[in-house]
Amino acid sequence: MKRSDRGARGVVRAIGAMSSIAALLAVAACSDNAPLTTPDGQPVSTVTTRVAEVNIVNADRDLTKTCLAPTAPDAGQTDPARIVVTDPRLLDAVCALGIGPRVVAVTAQKGAIPTYLGPQLTSVPAIGEGPDPQAARAAAPDLVLNSSQSFGTGDHTFPGIRSATIDVNKDWQSQFQATADALGRSSTGKRLLDEFHAETQKTGRRMDAPHSQVSLVRFTGTSEMIAGTETFAGQILSEVGVQRPEPQRSPRSFTVTDKNFTDADGDLIYVSFQGEDGLEHGKKVLLSDRWLDMGAPTWKRVLSVDDQIWYGTSGLAAAWLVLNDVKGSLDGNS
C-alpha cells in the first residue's frame, strides 16, 4: 500500500471519529435535563446523600436486609406457617424473628406499614383498615396476631383460629418478647434480645460512647423538638452509653424556643425530619445563622437520620438499624 493511501485513510478515520464525538456531545447537550436511564430505558435511581449541607446517615440503606435470619420454634412448640397480623406495629417483631414470609395478610391503613421493613412486608396484602374476622378467615391463617389496640381482640374474635394479643402499651422489648412467645419462640426471643444488648455494650466500649454528648433534634413543619431519653432513639443511645447534653436529660421531649435554642447543641447533633413539611422547615433552620453559630454546626458535626426508624416505630429490627447508624456515624462529620 502506498504511503499516500494510508495517510488518506487515516484522515478519513479521524474525520469519522470527530463526527461521532460531535454527535455524542450534541446528544449530551440536549439531554442535560433528561433523567438518567438504564440501557432498557428504565430510570436510574439516584440516592440523595446530603440535605441542607448535612450528610445523611446510611443514605443508601438496603431495605431488603432489614429482617434478621429465619428462626426455628422452641422445642415442642407449634410453628405457624400462615400468619395474619391485625396491627402493623407487630410486624417489626415478626421481621426480627425472620419469619416475615409467613405473614399472608395484615390489617393496615394505606401507607401504615413502615417502609424500613422492606419489600417482604410492605407488599403483604391488606385486608382492610380494621380487623375483619371473615377476611382473616379467608386468608386461612394458623395464627392471628392481635394488638391490645386492635378492634375486638381475643380468641373469640376468630372462632376456630388460634390467636394471640400483644400489649403494645408496654416497652418495645416486652412487646418483642411477647410476640416471640406467641410465635413459639420464647427462648429465641430472649437470645436475640441478649445478642442486641451485648452488641450495644461492645459498641459503647469500642467507640468510647460515655465521652460523647449527643443531641437529638426532630424538625416538624413548624418547630424543632428535642427528643427525650424515653424516645426510641433515646433509649438505644442510652443503652450504648452515649451521653446527652445536660438540658436534654429529661425523659420527655420538649419544643425548642428562642430562649432555649442552644439546648439543641452538643458534641454531635443527629437531626431528623417529620414528613415533607418537617424537611422544608428543617432545611431553613439548618442554613440559618443562628443554627450555624452553634458549636456542632461550626465543627461540621451534624448528621441526618431517618425519622421513621429512629422515632416513628420501635422494635428489635428497627433497634438494629439505629445501632448500625450509630456505629457508622458517631465519629463522623457532616
From TrEMBL:
Keywords: Signal, Transport. It holds the Pfam family Peripla_BP_2. Gene3D superfamilies: Nitrogenase molybdenum iron protein domain. InterPro entries: ABC_transptr_periplasmic_BD, Bact_iron-sidero_bind. It comes from the Bacteria. It is found in: Cell envelope. Residues 1-28 form the signal peptide. Transmembrane segments: none annotated. Residues 82-334 form the Fe/B12 periplasmic-binding domain. PANTHER family: IRON III DICITRATE-BINDING PERIPLASMIC PROTEIN, IRON(III) DICITRATE-BINDING PERIPLASMIC PROTEIN. Belongs to the bacterial solute-binding protein 8 family. This is ABC transporter substrate-binding protein.
